[in-house]
Amino acid sequence: MAAARRLQLCAVAPTAKHSASVLFLHGSGDTGQGLRAWVRDVMTPDLAFPHIRVLYPTAPERPYTPMRGALSNVWFDRLKISQDCPEHLDSIDSMAQSLGSIIQDEVDAGVPKHRIVIGGFSMGGAMALHLACRFHPDIAGVFALSSFLNKDSVAFQAVEERQRSCLPVPDLLQCHGSSDELVLFQWGEETSALLQNAGMRSTFQCFPGLHHQICGPEMELVRGWILSRLPPSGS
């Protein structure tokens, strides 16, 4: 297998001893810096913690089929933004390797896998679900904002296989705006239901009137959920 590509990364450092980490993945066409700035715009203070490092990687540019092959910062390719098309597993799995290198760096820095949360917005949430369900099911949890998985996603199969083997899977928090015009609310709901049917503990939160965006109350919910999975050491 080819070596994992090193990704550009910005981070919010903890203010005290680093004992946990969050990996937060941007949506298609954005960057890690862009997502971090967006988070800071909608919540005060920033998504920052005394003991948690928050990492915002940037997806590399690649030809993106929904944009007629134009280059874009995307985690993977797909035929179209739809529940009904097959997943582009080559690009998903290749990116999982690159993101796995970031996770391994945190482990090498002394953070155990069960003290790591992975999440994302839109396409970043779908990528986070693949990472959590298929590649790193021993993390503390996964969150997906305004996101969906294809109806026949291999992520569902991976959760089912772990359940049959009595192996744990991480808890999921999903948030979705009822007025999302790009990733339909129904797609998010159906993704949550399919993951629950496969055996994943999933909380789905609707934000009435929210479009394809994040908002302050949503990010405050995410902050509290992260702290419930990654409390300060010794708590």
From TrEMBL:
Xref: InterPro entries: AB_hydrolase_fold, LYPA1-2/EST-like, PLipase/COase/thioEstase
One annotated GO molecular function is: carboxylic ester hydrolase activity
Keywords for this protein: Hydrolase
Q: Does the keyword Hydrolase apply?
A: yes
* Residue ranges annotated for the Phospholipase/carboxylesterase/thioesterase domain, each copy included: 12-225
Stated EC number for the protein is: 3.1.2.22
Q: Does the keyword Hydrolase apply?
A: yes
Family, similarity comment: Belongs to the AB hydrolase superfamily. AB hydrolase 2 family.
Mind telling me which PANTHER family this protein's record contains? Answer: LYSOPHOSPHOLIPASE-LIKE PROTEIN 1, LYSOPHOSPHOLIPASE-RELATED
Q: What is this protein called?
A: palmitoyl-protein hydrolase
The root-end lineage is:
Eukaryota, Metazoa, Chordata, Craniata, Vertebrata
